[in-house]
Amino acid sequence: MEQLVEIPSNSEVLLSAKEAAQEFGIGRDRLYQLAHTVSVTGFPALWFGPKTVKFPKQALKDWLGSERGRQALYRAMKGK
Predict the structure, then answer these.
(1) pTM of the model
(2) How far apart are CA 57 and CA 19, in angstroms?
(3) Burial class (CB in 10 A: 0-12, 13-18, 19+), 50
(4) What is the Cα Rg of the chain in Å?
(5) CB under 8 A, 24+ apart: contacts of 55-58
(6) In sequence order, what are the residues at sequence separation of 6 or more whose Cβ sits closer than 8 angstroms to the Cβ of residue 18?
(7) Using one digit for the tens of pLDDT, what is the confidence trace for 23-75?
(8) Residue 34: closest CA among 10, 17, 13, 19
(9) Within 10 Å of residue 71's Cβ, how many Cβ atoms?
(10) Which of 19, 20, 58, 70 sits 20 to 30 Å CA-CA off 12?
(11) Pick the residue with more confidence: 21 or 4?
């Protein structure tokens, strides 16, 4: 099911995978892995076509601080 998301007008709010990896200390590969789990984990990733993904900075920060986010990140790091 597609979700409608309001895209912020300030480009600094949307991070590339490289920027998000540096900002939050998560590997780029892990970010891409989680970006493919949006419908299951609620991971905050915005896809622009099949290969371009951006990460809303505040939403990513909130998600990583949530119990759901911590559990999903733990499972992803354990390879499950």
Answers:
(1) 0.77
(2) 10
(3) exposed
(4) 12
(5) 55/14, 55/15, 55/16, 55/17, 55/19, 55/20, 55/31, 56/8, 56/13, 56/14, 56/15, 57/12, 57/13, 57/14, 57/15, 57/20, 57/23, 58/13
(6) 28
(7) 999 999 999 999 999 888 999 999 999 999 999 999 999 999 999 999 998 88
(8) 17
(9) 11
(10) 70
(11) 21
CA–CA separation, 24 and 45 (whole Å): 14
**Contact status, residue 22 vs residue 16, Cβ threshold 8 Å:** no
Q: Is 68 exposed, middle or buried (0-12, 13-18, 19+ CB in 10 A)?
A: exposed
* Exposure of 12 in the CB half-sphere (CA atoms within 13 A): 0
Q: What is the predicted pLDDT for the residue at 11? A: 53
Task: List Cα–Cα distances, 16 to 4, 31, 66, 71, 79, in angstroms.
Answer: 20, 10, 21, 23, 23
Structure tokens at 74: 């733990």
